[in-house]
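User: Quick sanity check before I run a bigger batch. Here is a single chain. Can you write out its predicted 3D structure?
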Amino acid sequence: AARIIQNMDPTADPCKDFYQYACGGWLNRHVIPETSSRYSIFDILRDELEIILKGVLETSDQGDREAFQKAKILYKSCMNESLIEQRDSSPLLEALTMVGDWPVASADWNKTKEPTWSMEEKLSIMNSRFNKRVLIDMFVWNDDRDSSRHIIYIDQPSLGMPSRDYYFNGGNYQRVREAYLQFMITIAKMIREDKNISKDDSFVQEEMAKVMELETEIAN
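Assistant: Done. Predicted structure follows.
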């Protein structure tokens, strides 16, 4: 209550300028940081919470629950930048192997991988191991017809870009679309180089153009 009163401006007439009356104290005491496009009480609470979480995650393990232990391990792994640099792309290459490799980053995928490749199996691995939904989204949620139970829902997943507007509209959307395609091409080239596969820029561009075409069809 004290914080709400502090954020008000009781000297303003609410009948003439209700916004100044309700938020004038806040406007006088806060400036939007250069790193933010907005600044509200929720942003302040989020910043305060991150400081608290940082302190918790950096404390030593003292008989923590398994969930806390996992959170601390994840935090430490992200902070260990020297090991991240040392491992380089190896974690990504391992992940690609789990999901059946990537044709554009493989010398002979059609011969070595495609005969035993199963879309159903790979989609389930992407979901269970990496929490990534591709083509189909599947989740458990409350039953709309009976809130006392949960059921399996099947839905469409999110697109590669934030919305279908990015695939069809011009202006800034088109610039993002071009950058998105270039990003895919760059990543494919990097992985081919890390796997010591011969350079073939035209092949990479053709394959990524097909990916973009497929995503556009899905968005449509």
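Residues 118-158 form one domain.

User: Great, the batch can go ahead then.
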